[in-house]
Each structure stands twice: as C-alpha cells, then as structure tokens.
Amino acid sequence: MKPESGLELLEARRLEERALNASGAFQSLLFDGWLLGYRAGPTKRLRCVNPFYPSTLPLAEKVAYCVAFYAAAKLPAIFRLLPFSEPSSLDGWLEREGWMLFERTLVQLARLAPLPAPRLPLDSVAIVDALEWVDLTARLLDADETAVLRIRERTAAYPLPHAGAVVRRDGEVVACGLLKMEGEYAGLFAVHTAAGWRGRGLARAVVSALLDEARRRGADRAYLQVTADNAPALAVYEHFGFTTAYTYWYRALREERA
C-alpha cells in the first residue's frame, strides 16, 4: 500500500478509521478535519491529534487551539503523524517549532489464508467472550480495579464483533490477545505474554488462534500496529505474513513527551 497515491490513500485512511473504531475512540472532537482524542489512559492514539482530513484554518492557529484544548483536558498535547496527514506540511512545521519525534509505529497487514501452523496446538488457546477476557487478563495486563471497570463498560458498549484469546498455565492466564472485527478486516490488539513465559511460542499460538477465529467469522485480511523497535513481536507477525503498509509516529513538546 502506497498511501501517497489515489485509491491506496483512501484505503489507508479507511484502515486508520477501522483501527480507531476498534480501539473505542468514542471521546473525541472533530476540529477542521482533525480528530482530537481525549480519552485518558496509556493508549496515545486515543488521546492525541489525528490529522486525517483536509484542513482549512491557518496551521499556527490550529496547533495553538490543540495545545489549549489538551491543557484544559489535563492531557499532554501530542500529534500522531502519518504519511497522509493533512496538511502535508504539518510534520515539518511541528519539527521546526520544536516538537520532538518519538515512538515510530508500523501498521501491518496480512491475508488470512493459508495460515501456518502454530508451535502449540490451537486447543491450548481458549477463545472467550470479550467481557470475560477483560476479567481474565486484568492481572496479566496490570489493570487495577478502577481500570477494569472502565474497560468492562467500554467493552459492553462496543457495537462490532470482538473476542479474546487466552493461554492458561496452572490456572493462571500467561498469554492473551484481542480480536476486533469490522467487515472483512480483523484487528489484533493486546497480544501479550507474561515475562516468565516468553520465548515458548505462546504469542504465536495466540495470534494463530485469533486469525483462525477471524477467518471463521468471515474476515480475509488482518491488521495490527507494532512499534518499530519491537523485534520479538515483529518476528511473530512475519511468520503469519504480516508486512508493513505504512508507518506513523508521534510528536510532542519536550516537556510533554512523557
């Protein structure tokens, strides 16, 4: 996918919309073609400026508005830049104004058939209801009681098909992943393995089970987002034919980067 050209640009933007839908980007404000997410939490793409669509206002005026908006929301002002951000001059403008680049992330795509066999049998992975998954994975994902309540509320209200996957060892969930469906596309999220269980093929088994479930539900493509420096995860995804469609990155003022 070359997001600089024609139909492929539209496909890339549509994929971004699917990913935001899957992440539950319900707390957001549209401002002259930019989507300003303000859902507090660790997921930066839901609490940043996503400059997707054509812009008409002066750039300096728009950025100043965003800085003030996030200050009022008690959140750092962060921009998420893509190869097709609008206007095309935005990334260079932010760099000249001292906004620092960090966390380069790859958006990857794969066809679902045929799927390679996992190292572990598929029956070692349980596909569970998404609400059940929230409770089962709270400890593994280090979610406290307050966070679990918020996640359960969002999960119960989510309008599209979704399901979770877990691997148990001695009654404890040691690996997990989440599947979000929209049309023929399946998104993979929260693929995680407990530190003491890494390197044993659990993540590969989880991904295989989720992709198998996605195909069973009618999907023919899968996507995911992974930071560019996460070599172990990239190796897992490469095994299933995932390749990079495009890259995005963040910019923030130095004192707001953390």
Terminal CA distance: 32 Å
**Unreliable sequence segments:** none
Q: Count the helices. How many?
A: 7
Instruction: Tell how many strands the DSSP assignment holds.
Output: 11
Placed side by side, the strands forming the largest sheet appear as 4-11-5-10-9-8-7-6
CATH class of the largest domain: Alpha Beta
Q: Give the name of the CATH architecture of the largest domain.
A: 3-Layer(aba) Sandwich
Could you characterize the architecture of this molecule?
It is built from 7 helices and 11 strands. It is globular. Helix 4 runs antiparallel to helix 5 (145-157). With 258 residues, the chain is α+β, with helices and mostly antiparallel strands. The protein starts with 5 loop residues before the first helix and ends in a 5-residue tail after the last strand. A hairpin with a 2-residue loop joins strand 1 and strand 2. The strands form 2 sheets. Strands 4-11-5-10-9-8-7-6 form an 8-stranded mixed sheet, sandwiched between helices. Strands 1-2-3 form a 3-stranded antiparallel sheet, with no helix packed on it.
Concise account of the structure shown:
By secondary structure, the chain is α+β, with helices and mostly antiparallel strands. The protein folds into two domains: 6-107 and 247-256, Aminopeptidase (3-Layer(aba) Sandwich); 113-219, Aminopeptidase (3-Layer(aba) Sandwich), CATH 3.40.630. 32% of the residues lie in helices and 29% in strands.
